[in-house]
Amino acid sequence: MTSTFAARPATVAGTADAEAVRSASGGREVLRVTNPADGSEVGRVPIAGAEEVDAAVATARAAWPGWARIDPGERGRLLHEAAAAVADAAQRLAEIQHRETGRPLAEALAGARAGASTLAQYAELGPVHRGRSLMGAWTATDLMVPEPYGVVVALTPWNDPVAIACGLVGAAVVTGNTVVHKPSEKCPQTGLALNELIREVLPRGVLVSVCGDGLVGAQLAGHRDVQLVAHVGSTATGRAIAEAAARTGAKVLLENGGNDPLLVDEGVDPVWAAEQAAVGAFTNAGQLCTSVERIYVHRGVADEFVEALVAQARRRVARPSGPEEIEMGPLVDVGQRERVHAHVADAVRSGARALVGGEVPEGPGAHYPATVLVDCAPDMLVMREETFGPVAPVRVVDDFAQGLAEAAEGRYGLAATVLTPSMEHAQAAWRELPVGTVKVNAVFGGAPGGAAQPRGASGTGFGYGPELLDEMTRVKVVHVGPPTRGRRG
Questions:
Q1: Which InterPro entries does the annotation name (predicted)?
Q2: Does the structure show a pLDDT above 60 at 3?
Q3: From 100, 185, 255, 293, the catalytic residue
Q4: Are 129 and 152 in contact (CB under 8 A)?
Q5: For the chain, which terminal residue's Cβ has fewer other Cβ atoms within 10 angstroms, N or C?
């Protein structure tokens, strides 16, 4: 990012492409937010200084004892009110996100509605979150009691900002924590609008907003008065946060990068498999945590699969003109597009072929075409690292065993998908793939309440589901024995 400061410390909470500039009015540094569809400016948001970061944490810390003592049912009731407010404002939140990130309006609206639903779920789950009674002595009572941590810092991303923030904030406040929330520097106005809706129904200080770049996130993550840091974003940032928290003793909850594989087995309908692959690779322009990042297809169905996948890629366009076309928004900014294209260019230089896409389009904005690469090798960046763009790299394998073995390689462990008619192969896949989530015969989907733990470089801890309430609390063991009676002389 560009700054007018002569020097800035290294950041740990995000490397911003949102431009930092000096405000013409007060000389204060601000985030200049641009629309990635056309490059136009859509707002300027002040960056919090060190004193403001300290004040935000102090406000949340002061509010915590009173909030923790409020009846859990009352906390749930207030969170229900917040859920209703977010649901009523879903269209407005989606429009703000659409302008800031370029996400198609329908997808942004679905994310906002999912956020409201998530708040409502935690409003119900929070008051029934329970501890355990232990089998102690007959005359004693022994308990394991969940207690809130205190001040939670939530550092949330730009690709699904409302839904993810609602999950972390909802689970934290309903269990008695207070929260300092820093939305991504790429969509600060979305985060501010969401926080305003939630904050209106909560006591002062329970939810505090802080905006800024990676330096602000670093100050929050390493703050001595923060007890838990929850971060959804890149692996590099997550590692830096973990290092900062190791110095303060704060707990860290991370959902970070992924390089999710898709296995296409022999015997599946190749056209259907290509539809699944396209949804996984191109939805939100490939900017989802669990996007399909690499594809292993059995040689027996490879030709038909690739042909159908290319056809699916051609349907993804910036401005649909007919029912056969599907809107695909831009990447979040030009910097992200440069990173995506660097992965594609590396693959082509190393022998891959782009059957569709693979070129940076002319004109304003950060658009990048849906791209299908073939002849991909394991050592290419698109097969080893998270590309986070609308790129589908395909590697043909001789049998399912080879595909499974190669899919299991790598430092990430977020999710994987297997398309197969074989129960034996499905069983082997979910047993052997070292990831937190395995989906069989569906790229997206799953029952409500599922909660996965990412592995390796993809993070640590439950990031959603009922188990997130466990992450937001720590257990205290209590032993209550009978009083000792004094002897009478």
A1: Ald_DH/histidinol_DH, Ald_DH_C, Ald_DH_N, Aldehyde_DH_dom
A2: no
A3: 255
A4: no
A5: C
